[in-house]
Amino acid sequence: MKLKSLSIAIIVATLPTTGVFAAALDRSGQSISSFLQPGNYFEAGISVLDPTVEGKEAGTTTTRRDIGDMGDDYYFPSAAIKLQLTDKFSFGLIYDQPFGADAAYSGENIFVSKPGVDTVLPAKNINDLVTSKVKSYLESDTGKAQISGLMAQGKTQQEAIGLVSQGFLNSAPVKALQAGLAEANANLGQGNTKVEVDTQNLSMIFGFQPIPNLNVYAGGVYQTIKGNVSLRGTAYSLYNGYDAKIKETGDVGWLAGVAYQIPEIALKASVTYRSEIDHKVDATETLTVESTLAKNPAVLAGLGVTPAQIAAMNTPGTTEITTPQSVNLDFQTGIMANTVAFANLRWVNWKNFSIRPYKFGKYSEALGPILPGDDKRLNGFNLVEYSEDQISATVGVGRKLNDQWAGNVSVGWDSGAGNPVSTLGPTEGYWNLGLGVQYSPTPQTFIAGGVKYFWLGDAKAQTGAQAGGDKYVAEFTDNNAIAYGLKIGYKF
Q1: How far is CA 36 from CA 55, 188, 265, 341, in A?
Q2: Dist CA 435 CA 54 (whole Å)
Q3: Alpha-carbon gap, residue 230 to 490, rounded angstroms
Q4: Region 163-170: what's the mean pLDDT?
Q5: ω into residue 122 within 30 of 0, thus cis?
Q6: Residue 1: its pLDDT value, please?
Q7: Which domain of life, per UniProt (predicted)?
Q8: Which ranges in 241-342 belong to alpha helices (H)?
Q9: Other CB atoms within 10 A of residue 344 CB
Q10: Contact predicate 454/411, CB 8 Å
Q11: Region 465-473: what's the mean pLDDT?
Q12: Do the Cβ atoms of 93 and 203 come closer than 8 Å?
């Protein structure tokens, strides 16, 4: 089995639907296969995903309404060129969009704002807050003195406590807190929760082949990131009306790897590491209740926010986002005439990933410690975070049918990045089944197409304030997605 006779079957094993719907924000799968093609090579492809992600209010949510499909369709292109400069040196450029998100809620549920109905804090939280403040006042020196004075006038202890409590509730600070909360409730955001995150990668790779069977490669990666997020509905409490727009910005990372091949049996194995990439972005953040809170300092003061925290909330700052490191293992080998088996294993370090926009973070640091019970977050909380690393695997078989046609079949699995997950991407891993076909009008050119069906993992969705705990606000079950890919290639 010479490599030449299997080249079609080998190329068809790399259809552009490799990643498409993976854990967390993973999208393209960051394949290096185009750089490992023999000779000079060019390809361009596009992948399209059509997900269905539906659920139901659950967990700490007091209602149990249905949540319609919140997964938006999206597409992303890819392209690559590889040049064999000499027998020992090669060069390549790979463009892809490795990470991203597209989602939007609709209908009547806790992720859609209804002015006049939604509140900044649930009634239970407000009642607990007032009860706590009354108790603190009664235990203060001033409260104790007032109770003693009333008892000296002939009131029973219970009567005295009742009168002092009522007097506290009618005091100016409490009335100001109530008025401020009422105004804040009237100025919550309108519309629906939605998110869009886009990244672009350009990898510049240099390869060295000290012997024909070995390829050592490394290079730089330029990556851009931009995004928009809107939080709406009672699920997000005070953040109902939060918007963030992340201006596109770029930074650099690196990759390195090694590949080994035995062309006589169509064997090829490679391992590729990609580094983290740190971004410092300018995020324009707005919160609809912000102006209300500024006009009503009694609200934040009543919630226990200190003057220093209030000052920090109104000071501009930079948002830091670090896209994760990853490792890809790729393997293929001939198993019979005109037939190859292939496998891919990918690890992505999502456990160390989080997004905390600057102003969002300052608000969370101020309000996190006063959340009820085990929801307390003494150091604030993130907009998005994940609790586990992602592991995904794909195995399949590609076969050359004749000089012009080849096909493949594959099965894929993804672990997800933890459960519960973010409300901005409420699925946990998947199983998939893929089919691909390739047509080669000439020995140098091909057109490949593929389709994959995904069984998406069930997930519990939690807000940023709940992340790290077991509480959640919705469940998403029995969901699916279908992906399509098209790729053209040219060997020269």
Answers
A1: 42, 54, 16, 17
A2: 26
A3: 43
A4: 89
A5: no
A6: 37
A7: Bacteria
A8: 290-295, 297-302, 307-313
A9: 24
A10: no
A11: 90
A12: yes
Quick count: other Cβ atoms within 10 Å of Cβ 273?
15
CATH fold for the domain made of 3-102+193-491: Porin (2.40.160)
Q: Report how far apart the first and last C-alpha atoms of the chain are (Å, whole number).
A: 22
| pLDDT, tens only, 13-34 | 445 455 566 778 999 999 999 9
Tokens of 284: 């324009």
pLDDT of residue 299: 75
Q: Which of 398, 410, 329, 411 is nearest to 7 (CA)?
A: 398
Q: What is the C-alpha separation between 413 and 431, in angstroms, rounded?
A: 5
On whether the pTM is more than 0.85, the answer is yes
Q: Is the dihedral of CA 206, 211, 215, 216 positive or negative?
A: negative
Q: Are 416 and 23 in contact (CB under 8 A)?
A: yes
For 139, the token pair is 């235990």
DSSP 222: E
Residue 8 CA to its chain's centroid (Å): 36
Domain map (residue ranges) of the chain = 3-102+193-491, 121-187
Instruction: Sort 469 into a burial class: Cβ within 10 Å, 0-12 / 13-18 / 19+.
Output: middle
